[in-house]
Design goal:
Number of helices: 17
Strand content: 5-15%
Largest sheet: 4 strands, antiparallel
Structural class: alpha+beta
Shape: elongated
Strand order of the largest sheet: 4-7-3-8
Radius of gyration: 30 Å
Number of strands: 8
């Protein structure tokens, strides 16, 4: 066995282990798209969730093909490669290297979708994704990682894992696109004051944040791509020896400090620790240390993370209220300004002996920002001039899920609550007076003519969380047919103060469900009592129940009228 082991080529072992490592972290970075999807879906309104999810899937599907056919080659051309498209037929190692670069490119592309949420046409976003994957991002890579001129300025522009090249570029592109498109309807009043438009799920946003944080270890730690190298015919640790431990430590500390910085600034500004700011702060802290994570001290990681997280509420407010740019998912303060700060702060916290200069960092930031703004403004400016950038007012009001995709992300209020053994008809079939008596659900004892032979409509407005119990109670009294509508209203329930990303707003229209139940052979009083008992929590805001006479009813299929139609 020893003889066999000695015959193994060390370079084969090094290549195999290195490739497995790169593929593993590549798949981890790909999983970040699930995080982006959840984070953005949670920060948009419920009527735009499917649109946001679709954009995230198409970013990968369209962008990665374009990056393979065009983008990776363009970056090599800008960087001065002799055979820029050699990767196409280059074999296993070349394809793995291409895929590792592709997941970084798609991360930059998907950031933009959060800034333009709620009003960009799908075709406009996909068009921009194509051009970003083919030209805009590859040019940035060509200037830097591919060996372009920014590497020759002093000690060269330093960006270890893409804090500026990927995230800063994506955040600046998102801000530019949002500026060209203009704000969502009703975002600003005529006097310039801001209307808060909360997203529909903080839960989704936090889940997406934690998925992104998990994937970020692949983003940063994975960039230390060389596990083994061959030295004098023997295996030795490559980048892992000096880099991987520092990167893992500073990534973790930067993430944590970012959350603390954003939460603290939120507390100072609003006297509350805003959940979304804490989540966004974790990401801003990660962005802040991504460009420098291999060459800073642990103290630097804490300082840069705190600064990147702390600037988040300040920059978001500046963008929203001074620039009046509607950056829906705060992509600029999370990715753009945090990426810029991380690149510029690198020289001040670099480990002794690490060669990095502020001048080179500033020039790199300026070049990347200028190119990104110009290219993005050109693309969205042309689309806007052609009338293809933004959806119509009607579609924006309706929601992009229906207008762009023909789907309703939340089509139901809940699953059926009637057991399979019940004889209650819930399929819209005909019901006869005898069917009630034989159902076994109730014996009303109300005589032959409930409701004095008339049709009654019982309308109840109740808390959404009581809907399931109300449905069950109605089935038990023999009145399973009902119509349910999502509504909002105001009554005895006191107004509350809500907060979305550090801004307070008054919640005086409370979310309710309206239940309408038309009955003929079931006493309306029993329906009322069933709803009241099921919906009662003992707190203000439980709702109201109204009973109205119905003049007539007609069954569409049979033409039956009056009580028989009900």
């Amino acid at each position: 066995m020893l003889d066999v082991a000695l015959q193994v080529d060390p370079s084969s072992i090094a290549s195999g282990v290195n490739n497995v490592w790169v593929l593993t972290v590549t798949f981890l970075i790909f999983f970040m798209h699930a995080g982006f999807a959840m984070l953005e879906a949670g920060q948009v309104r419920s009527k735009n969730v499917a649109n946001q999810l679709t954009k995230n899937m198409l970013t990968w599907s369209v962008g990665v093909v374009v990056y393979f056919l065009v983008g990776a080659g363009v970056s090599s051309i800008v960087g001065g490669a002799a055979d820029p498209f050699a990767y196409v037929n280059g074999g296993s190692d070349s394809w793995i290297g291409w895929l590792f670069g592709a997941v970084f490119a798609m991360t930059a592309a998907t950031i933009v979708s959060g800034a333009v949420a709620g009003r960009a046409k799908l075709r406009a976003y996909v068009t921009y994704t194509v051009l970003l994957s083919a030209v805009i991002y590859p040019v940035v890579v060509g200037f830097t990682w591919a060996g372009g001129f920014l590497t020759e300025v002093g000690p060269g522009f330093q960006d270890f894992a893409g804090g500026m090249i990927v995230h800063g570029m994506g955040g600046i592109a998102g801000l530019t696109a949002a500026w060209i498109l203009g704000p969502r309807m009703d975002r600003y009043n005529d006097d310039g004051s801001v209307n808060v438009i909360p997203g529909h799920s903080v839960t989704f946003a936090v889940l997406g944040t934690l998925i992104l944080c998990f994937g970020w270890y692949g983003f940063n730690v994975g960039t230390a791509a060389s596990v083994f190298v061959v030295e004098n015919g023997s295996l030795a640790l490559g980048a892992f020896a000096d880099t991987v431990g520092r990167v893992a430590l500073t990534t973790t500390l930067g993430m944590a400090a970012g959350a603390i910085g954003a939460g603290t600034l939120s507390l100072v500004k609003t006297r509350k620790v805003d959940t979304l700011y804490v989540a966004n702060g974790m990401l801003a802290g990660l962005v802040g240390i991504t460009s420098n994570t291999n060459g800073i001290t642990w103290v630097g990681a804490l300082a840069i993370g705190l600064i990147a997280g702390g600037q988040l509420p300040v920059v978001f407010e500046f963008v929203e209220k001074r620039l009046r740019i509607d950056d829906v998912c705060a992509v600029f303060p999370v990715h753009g300004s945090a990426g810029v700060l991380g690149a510029l702060l690198f020289p001040f916290f670099a480990v002794p002996g690490y060669e990095v200069s502020f001048a080179a960092q500033a020039m790199g930031v300026a070049v990347i920002a200028t190119w990104t703004v110009a290219a993005t403004a050109l693309v969205f400016g042309v689309l806007k001039a052609l009338g293809q950038a933004r959806v119509s007012e009607e579609h924006e009001r309706e929601g992009l899920d229906i207008a762009e995709h023909g789907v309703d992300t939340y089509p139901e209020f809940g699953r059926p609550d009637v057991s399979e053994g019940s004889a209650v008809r819930t399929d819209g079939g005909e019901r006869t007076p005898s069917s009630r008596a034989s159902s076994g659900l109730r014996s009303d004892g109300a005589g032959d003519l409930p409701n004095a032979g008339r049709i009654k409509m019982v309308t109840a407005v109740v808390r959404p969380d009581r809907l399931s119990d109300v449905k069950t109670a109605l089935a038990e009294v023999g009145a399973p047919s009902l119509t349910v509508t999502n509504v909002s209203g105001r009554g005895s329930q006191p107004a509350k103060t809500g907060q979305w990303r550090g801004e307070e707003y008054t919640v005086d229209l409370h979310q309710k469900v309206k239940i309408e139940c038309v009955v003929a052979d079931v006493p309306a009083d029993e329906v009322v009592e069933a709803i009241r008992e099921a919906a009662d929590t003992g707190e203000p805001g439980d709702g109201k129940i109204f009973v109205l006479p119905v003049e007539d009813a007609v069954q569409v299929r049979t033409g039956a009228r009056g009580p028989e139609a009900v």
